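I hope you will forgive my troubling you with a question about protein structure. The record follows directly beneath this note:
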Amino acid sequence: QVQLVESGGGLVQSGGSLRLSCVASGRTFSIYLMAWYRQAPGRQRELVASITNRNEVNVTDSVKGRFTISRDTGENTALLQMNSLKPEDTGVYYCNAQTRGWTAPIDYWGQGTQVTVSS
């Protein structure tokens, strides 16, 4: 089992910055990928960015050049630096960790942290 705890959300004006942090505990040695997802009201949860143990990064087009994902494997932490925030970035941001199961990856989720960007 892996437990994830997010922090760093809040209210910020358009153009501002926030940094989200996700700390993993439990069987952290089994994690091979960590990611951030977000869910806006009335919309499906979407991938924002992911990073593997080999530092392979994937960032969704809508946040490229503004958001940066990083990972400190020694501290079992994943960070999401969000700059030039826009009102459409508003939503609940969830940390995700994947481990390898016998037949398919196993997903773990944090409780979510609210990000609100005012215009």
